[in-house]
Amino acid sequence: MSLRLKDVVKEYPDFKLKIDLQVNKGELVTILGPSGCGKTTTLRVIAGFITPDNGNIFVSGRGINHLPPHKRQIGIVFQDYALFPNLNVLDNIAFGLKMHGVKRILREAKARKLLKLVHLTEYGGRKISQLSGGEQQRVALARALATEPRLLLLDEPLSALDAKLRKGLRNEIRRIQRELAITTLYITHDQEEALALSDRIAVMRNGKIEQAGRPQEIYNEPVNLFVAGFVGQANFLKGTIRSIEQGYALFNTALGDIRAPAPRGCYPGREMNLFFRPENCTIKSSTAAENKGNYIQGVVAGCEYLGEIMQLEVVSRDSRFILRLRGCPAIADGNRIVFSIKAENCRLLPATG
């Protein structure tokens, strides 16, 4: 089943949600953004808990605005799981089926099948209080799937768990979503989670989608400064387009000229921002800076060993850069270095936004 939000608007005294979004059949799409940007409001509008002021919501081409929540055939996993402490695991999972009038023998059979799906086969008789956070998350997911919803909504389901458990459970969510081929909208503020889970990511700010695309597109080809800075670590450098030749711009900065692919709407004299990722930097010998190329000289202001990589903070005049390098020995603070970035790994972004 596909989901479409067309020109959906919800206004509050201090906030306005205005969103247009497509989730294709069988896709897992993540809405990623900071707290207060409208992620959960979007989910509650889709579920029917909030009525939009304007716009339409379609599931497989059919409008659902007029339907109450219990008739939208949507499964929801809330941030706090919202499990019933007075019911055991099996009855929690079967609760929705009971509300739909399914006979006990049939709903228990379905609940046991879902327990197997979420790898909790022997947990049916346990109380909710006897489960870990990760086990409760699995029960909540199984309960959401019990009524065979057309659409699954997940509202930051891993936010209450520790980092190691989150990583394991996000893989489980992805496995189950793919196995069932259920159309899923996932809400999170965690960049790594979004990049690892999603078929596509919609980055949200102030009630609007800034960019939607595949994880690789969002990470490597952000459309503006907000997306570039919010998703992963980023380096920026202000400057002006000096010239354009054969699809590349010569970008004039306070640290020298840097070559980068020329984006649409680029012209000599335009102020822009250069963007590049820390892992795309390479340390060069001091003599390399004498050659033509994208070289920046600076002083090491910090060095952190992070296992597989060494992270450097480099200061050059008024600019600070982060470098993430593999196979690099520790470099003492105060040492002067030269690093380079290939033109293909640079991107020029509008000076605002």
How does this structure look, described?
This protein is of the alpha+beta class and 353 residues long. The protein has two domains: 3-229, Rossmann fold, CATH 3.40.50; 233-350, Nucleic acid-binding proteins (OB fold (Dihydrolipoamide Acetyltransferase, E2P), Beta Barrel), CATH 2.40.50. Helix content is 24%, strand content 37%. It has helices at 39-47, 89-99, 104-117, 133-145, 163-180, 191-197, 215-220, 225-230; strands at 3-12, 15-23, 28-32, 54-59, 62-63, 74-77, 151-155, 183-188, 200-205, 208-213, 235-245, 248-253, 256-261, 271-276, 281-284, 295-305, 309-316, 319-326, 336-341, 347-350. The protein has a six-stranded mixed β-sheet, with helices on both faces. Helix 2 crosses helix 3 (104-117) and helix 3 (104-117) crosses helix 4 (133-145). It is elongated. The model has no long low-confidence stretch (mean pLDDT 92).
Keywords:
OB fold (Dihydrolipoamide Acetyltransferase, E2P), 5-stranded antiparallel sheet, alpha+beta, 24% helix, 20 strands, 6-stranded mixed sheet, 8 helices, 2 domains, 353 residues, Rossmann fold
What share of the residues lie within helices?
10-25%
Q: Beta-sheet strand percentage?
A: 35-45%
Tally of alpha and pi helices: 8
**Do you know the CATH architecture of the largest domain?**
3-Layer(aba) Sandwich
Taken in chain order, the helices and strands follow as EEEHEEEHHHEHEHEEHHEEEEEEEEEE
The main pleated sheet reads as: 6 strands, mixed
Q: What would CATH call the homologous superfamily of the largest domain?
A: P-loop containing nucleotide triphosphate hydrolases
CATH top level of the largest domain? Answer: Alpha Beta
End-to-end distance: 34 Å
Average pLDDT for all residues: 92
Dominant shape: elongated
Strand order, main sheet: write it out.
Answer: 6-7-8-3-9-10
List low-confidence stretches: none
CA gyration radius, whole angstroms: 25 Å
Q: What structural class is derived from the secondary structure elements?
A: alpha+beta
Count structural domains.
2
- CATH third-tier fold name of the largest domain: Rossmann fold
Q: Total strand count, please?
A: 20
